[in-house]
Amino acid sequence: MTQTPLEKVLAARESIHAIKHALIQQYKLPVVSMALNIAGWPKTDRQKRKFFFHMLNKLHEHLYANRLPVSPQTARIIDNDNGLTFIACINAPEDSAQIKIISERFEANQVLGRFIDVDVIDESGEIVSSEKQKVCFFCGQYPAIDCMRNQRHTTEELRKFQQNKIQDFLIGNHRKNQSHKLTELTIYALFTEASLHPKPGLVSPFDNGAHNDMDFNTFSRSISALSPIFNQFYLKCLDPNQNLTIEDMRIWGIQAEKKMNAATEGINTHKGAIFLMLLVGKIITDIIKTNESISIQTIKNGLKNYNKHIENDKAQVYEQTHGNIVQKAFPQLKAGIRQQVMDGLPAVFQGGIIPMYTRHFSPQQKIEELSATLKISLLSIMEENIDSNIIHRGGPELLKILQQKAKESKVALLENQNHTYNEFCKWTKNKNLSPGGSADLLALTIFIYLCTINPLLKPYEF
């Protein structure tokens, strides 16, 4: 005889009840269980399973923080017609009533705490109850038991309500994790660029390059100060109810520069990197929000949307940056970071990122291999980039010489010969040349590459 859904659920609950009591009999310890409070049947699907395991991780953290250790050999996850249920004995001196108070506090502190039931059974097999009536999660006006008995809401209403709430919760949590990951990758990229040693004319942990106003500590302070700004920016960009305008992005850039200047006492360590990271970061969050895959092509497509804004930016007229000064003096060269962006970042996509893929760059690589890839990537960028910092310090002719030396150094490094590269680093220092624009583009290249391969940044799977 075929069972009805209700009969299946009741039979499943009896099975769970028997497992709990068997554990109590064997271990003489109280039992904690967690299940989802889902209306109707079936009780589980892919989305609810994700939600269950998310809440289970939170429960483990809560129990551990309250010094209620789960006995590992007793832990069970039951998957039957009642959905998923976690069961385990608690090996702690607290009595069952105190464990119940702690479990209720856990439910109350969760955004969707009414969608979970955490039960406690004492050593004698009795359910521990606080005698509190839970409010209906749908209407929030009456006790849940009262709404159920009076059938105030249909099963279809309740299931749709829960489905939407759980989906919104999981997507929101996914977006928050993505924001943290984007921040992590941004900071990693900036620190990795700064940490590379030796570099031609650039600051590293052991050399100030062609700079007498900054060192590695200056860069470290700047990067640390920028971290919270990037995290807040990515959270805002990933919010489905937000659509940042170009003016909004400039405000974020101004705030980031203020943080940088406060940390470095006015020394410009990352002005170009801030511009690049915020712009490309915004493009990547737009890609995520449309549930596309992050790739070189989708980033290139996103860049095209900002060409007109950058070309017409009045800051090019009144800001006395090296890029603007060089652009006015040598307009035919099309130098600087802004021009790189309008051209589609050729120094990144036709230069620096190629060695990342061909050499399978990974933060987990040994330092020697990682360093070699980064040097080749930097030199590839320098070959392509019309760096306004170099033109500002040495003029267009010296830029051509530098690009040729970068090419020769790269060829030598690919043959595992370091001498040419090391001599190039000495030459840039002696000539007082610092390819700061190329350094910013290296950090951006690392960031883009890691974003394209990171599984957490892939579209949310429903």
From TrEMBL:
Gene responsible for this protein: citG
Enzyme Commission code(s) on record: 2.4.2.52
GO molecular-function term, one example from the UniProt record: glycosyltransferase activity
Protein name: 2-(5''-triphosphoribosyl)-3'-dephosphocoenzyme-A synthase
PANTHER family: 2-(5''-TRIPHOSPHORIBOSYL)-3'-DEPHOSPHOCOENZYME-A SYNTHASE, TRIPHOSPHORIBOSYL-DEPHOSPHO-COA SYNTHASE
Statement: the UniProt record of this protein carries the keyword Nucleotidyltransferase: yes
Keywords, sorted A to Z: ATP-binding, Glycosyltransferase, Nucleotide-binding, Nucleotidyltransferase, Transferase
Annotated catalysed reactions: apo-[citrate lyase ACP] + 2'-(5''-triphospho-alpha-D-ribosyl)-3'-dephospho-CoA = holo-[citrate lyase ACP] + diphosphate; 3'-dephospho-CoA + ATP = 2'-(5''-triphospho-alpha-D-ribosyl)-3'-dephospho-CoA + adenine
InterPro entries: CitG, CitX
Source species: Salinivirga cyanobacteriivorans
GO biological process: prosthetic group biosynthetic process
